[in-house]
Specification:
Elements (H helix, E strand, L loop, with lengths): L1 H18 L19 H17 L3 H8 L2 H4 L2 H11 L5 H16 L2 H28 L32 H20 L4 H21 L5 H24 L4 H6 L11 E3 L5 E3 L6
Antiparallel strand pairs: 1-2
Helix pairs in contact: 1-9, 2-10, 5-9, 6-7, 7-8, 7-10, 8-9, 8-10, 9-10
């Protein structure tokens, strides 16, 4: 149990520090940068890539730690893993749909917007992750018969789920939701970025560790899933904030959205700016 806790804490620190790079102190600007992609994205991508590469030599060792016989036979851990896995599977969609219905019924615009943009982020992340899974064709841990954890083969993912280990889809979904929700809420309440961010990213990390515990993914799968999910969440929110009145927002949010003279634009690095007059 202690070793599993150490892995979870270490992984949380790695993922939260990399993913949390977007929580820099906010700065106001009357001329916000409206570009969807920025040079700083390359730095964040580089951090994730370095973390993933660094994890490759440790994949086997971490798998043996998390899959220790005493741990995998622990009923409490099994139940906890199943519960946590929900938040990387159907959970984000169920929660998003529920929030959307409640938000529209109670006329709470921010809840509705959070539901729509959060769900969009999960969809974007899932699509990206799905393409990578098929193209890279990495064997899952339970299917690997040799000592080579880096068993990739171009296009082999088409053969089925046994060859779709990289990246972790559950981690992608969990981090996409975490990034979207933390970024959206920090644009409304900037001081909460240090509250929601660690909680959401920490929870997403537990989803990734649970997938390692279930022998479905390597640690490097989880890191790359976190990268894809974080980018999906941040870029989805930024797109919606810099493309007001896009078709999806008009269709799903409609008149339930707030009317505001000034719209907050959240940068990838967490910076906050104001973007002119508009009507939702």
């Amino acid at each position: 149990m202690t070793r599993l806790l150490h892995v979870a804490v270490a992984t949380t620190i790695v993922l939260s520090s990399v993913a949390g790079a977007q929580t820099a102190p906010a700065t106001d600007s009357v001329r916000p940068d409206l570009r969807l992609f920025k040079r700083s994205d390359l730095y964040i991508l580089g951090m994730f890539t370095a973390a993933t590469i660094a994890m490759f030599p440790l994949d086997r060792h971490l798998a043996s730690v998390v899959r220790d016989e005493d741990l995998v036979t622990n009923r409490d851990l099994k139940r906890a893993s199943r519960a946590i896995r929900f938040f990387g599977g159907p959970g984000p969609f169920i929660i998003g749909a529920s929030m959307y219905v409640v938000g529209r019924a109670t006329r709470v615009p921010r809840m509705t917007e959070l539901a729509v943009h959060g769900t969009e982020a999960v969809v974007v992340g899932a699509a990206t992750s799905g393409v990578l899974k098929i193209l890279l064709g990495r064997e899952r841990p339970y299917f690997t018969s040799d000592t080579n954890a880096r068993n990739f083969r171009l296009g082999r993912g088409l053969k089925g789920g046994d060859f779709q280990s990289f990246p972790s889809g559950h981690s992608t979904a969990a981090f996409a939701a975490a990034a979207a929700v933390s970024t959206e809420t920090s644009s409304w309440w900037p001081r909460t970025r240090w509250i929601f961010g660690p909680i959401l990213y920490g929870g997403a990390t537990l989803v990734g560790v649970s997938r390692m515990y279930d022998d479905k993914h390597w640690a490097s799968d989880v890191i790359m899933g976190a990268a894809v999910g974080t980018f999906a969440g941040l870029k989805t929110v930024r797109f919606n904030h810099t493309h007001e009145g896009n078709r999806i927002d008009r269709f799903l949010l409609g008149s339930s959205s707030e009317t505001s003279r000034l719209r907050v634009i959240v940068g990838y690095d967490g910076s906050v700016g104001l973007a002119g007059r508009l009507t939702w």
